[in-house]
Design brief:
With 323 residues, the chain is an alpha/beta fold. The protein is built from 13 helices and ten strands. The strands form three sheets. Strands 2-1-3-5 form a four-stranded parallel β-sheet, with helices on one face.
Length: 323
């Protein structure tokens, strides 16, 4: 125990303790929580730059071919942080209870990252969430803060402020999303993980094209998560993956308020491929486009598919040929 306390003190005493946050995967879900937590502890934070072609290609070179595009992008972001910070945060999140599992990628990502960069000399930081094993988020953050050498009181206070910042950001996002319905124009519900929709090189070009084409984009991932989870049981009472349940519930809640739905995912995501098939089968009659991005196809082909989809909706609404 004495050695543990001593090593924690040494970690805290490190000059310019800096935590690197890869701008990929769960950063788009927990970014405000992470940044506020470390800042409240007086720790410096570095966030990698938005995804670009170089980051994507370098990440792909570090991964096996079967790895999903989002994980490849994540490795590319980690690569840009190597040597620039004391630790790079890679959480290990398994699940939040019964039928509330995360994709296995999130429980293995820390070990995968440590292995890929094992010769870099870079240190990595993690926290473990598995509520089936009685390891919840608050407990995980307390252990992580204590590992860095901070007192339990300091860590609890930082976590409290971080949860407030996270909740405030989420409320703001939901309010902004609800205002989208007030705008004139064709409403398109885009259902994809935040780390896909917000990625500068993957999902954002799709959203930008839709908006330039006159569509009003509604993001399924920006609905209240508890409400979405409740709604998801109407579409599937057995869907097990937490984020896919949220997206399914959001679609269930909003499908009658929009003109069309786009399922936005990356190749080859196992949970998305199964959930998307279920969503398609249960929403026959609704204009729906299943758009799977692989990082190889240029935007020209994607834009053609999006244009065709929007034209189908316009035709259905009797708007084709109008000025």
């Amino acid at each position: 125990m004495g050695n543990k306390k001593q090593s924690a003190s040494v970690r805290r005493a490190e000059k310019n303790l800096t935590i690197g946050l890869p701008r990929a995967m769960l950063y788009h879900r927990y970014g405000a929580l992470w940044e506020t937590f470390f800042q409240q502890l007086g720790v410096n934070v570095i966030v990698s730059e938005p995804t670009n072609r170089r980051i994507m290609e370098e990440g792909a070179a570090l991964a096996i071919d079967e790895t999903c595009l989002s994980a490849k992008i994540f490795l590319g972001h980690v690569q840009t942080l190597i040597g620039r910070c004391s630790y790079i945060l890679v959480p290990r999140i398994t699940g939040f209870g019964v039928r509330r599992d995360m994709c296995t990628r999130f429980s293995s990502l820390y070990d995968l990252t440590c292995n890929v960069f094992r010769t870099s000399g870079q240190k990595f930081l993690t926290y473990n969430i598995d509520e089936k094993a009685r390891s919840d988020e608050e407990t995980a953050f307390e252990k992580m803060g204590e590992f860095l050498g901070f007192s339990q009181k300091e860590v609890k206070s930082a976590y409290k402020e971080a949860k407030k910042a996270e909740a405030d950001q989420r409320k703001k996002q939901i309010r902004q999303q609800e205002k989208q319905y007030e705008k004139p124009g064709m409403k398109i519900l885009v259902a994809g993980h935040s780390y896909v929709a917000e990625d500068a090189c993957v999902g954002k070009p799709v959203l930008d094209f839709l908006e330039k084409s006159g569509a009003v984009v509604i993001r399924a991932d920006l609905m209240d998560r508890k409400d979405a989870l409740k709604k998801s049981t109407q579409m599937s009472p057995t869907l097990k993956w937490e984020i896919n349940r949220e997206l399914a519930g959001s679609i269930q809640a909003q499908k009658d308020k929009v003109d069309g739905i786009i399922l936005l995912s990356v190749f080859p995501c196992g949970p998305d491929s199964m959930a998307s098939e279920m969503i398609i089968r249960k929403n026959r009659g609704v204009p729906l486009l299943n758009l799977v991005l692989d990082g190889q196809e240029g935007m020209a082909g994607i834009e053609t598919r999006l244009e065709s989809f929007l034209d189908i909706i316009r035709f259905k609404k009797g708007e084709m040929g109008r000025g």
